[in-house]
Amino acid sequence: MNKKKKTILLLLLVLTSFFIACSTYNKKSIPESEKNIIKDTEVNIPNKKEIIEKLSSDEFEGRFIKNNGNKLAGEYIYNIFSNLKLQSFLKTNYYHIYSYEDTADNDTTIKIKREASNIIGKISGKESKNAIIISAHFDHIGIQSGKLIRGALDNASGVSVLISLADKLKKESSRNSFPYDIIFAAFNGEEVGLTGSKSFVTEISGVYDKLYNINIDSVGYKDGEDIVLNHSFNKLHGKSNSSSDYDKLYNNLKKYFEINNLTTSKVSQAYLSSDDYSFQEKGYTSIGIIEKNVKKIIHTTNDIPEIIDYNKLELIEKSIYDFVVGSGDCLFK
Predict the structure, then answer these.
(1) For position 14, what pLDDT does the model report?
(2) What is the DSSP annotation of 23-89?
(3) Which of 21, 152, 270, 300 is most buried when burial is the number of CB atoms within 10 A of its CB?
């Protein structure tokens, strides 16, 4: 081999070693600790359809507050809140345990105390003197006359929007902190006298300088009409809806619903009363988001996942999200 060939061969060997070294370096360029961080942030949160089908399944038995299916539904939501890494509200976990008065199973004249749990999580803002509370109840009426009432519209639909909002607003807060807390309340006991929300409102009293509530109940019906921004307490008590805070909240929410091509109504219907009533009763500004003609379908065996319009659910969620990001501080100024 002549000198020139030896030089070329030596050069090829050096270049081959260099590329092997580079290849080995690239494979090890992400430390194991960083891989774990990446893995931890990739949490699979179920979508609205998955949530509604799960909550409406045989496993959850119609989610009646005294049934095991109700407890399983609470655990399901708890685990999603945990995966979202929401903070707890006042407690060390997401359970807000409360007691309520009920009648004995074998004698309705006997009053007894029972325990149940709301599931509460939050996103802390830069300041914690004010709060937006976004809520939806997860309980339902269970089995009636031997038939399972699944409660897909009432209110697995609202819970699915609540969870999706928690996911998206948590991501937004990691980029830009909100100037107020956002509390996500999955209430229990709505179907037995609003027991969960009444207990929660009592406990949150005095925690914040200002707060208001947006409650989501029975939304996304395929044959639905207007989205009603409801004020059930005033309707039931013969009072006017007109107040500066209510008007501000209504007008701002209405704007974002209309941007997303959803028609809203201010018609207050007593039969549409939900957990927003508990806030209104204590003097807090609250609006219940519900659809106008759901009475004919809720609490029936026809309330199944197949009646849900998921495109409409997306627009409802987007409207609330856009409001929180764009005008969430409208009552705190």
Answers:
(1) 43
(2) HHHHHTSS-HHHHHHHHHH------HHHHHHHHTSGGGGGGBTTSHHHHHHHHHHHHHHHHHTPEES
(3) 152
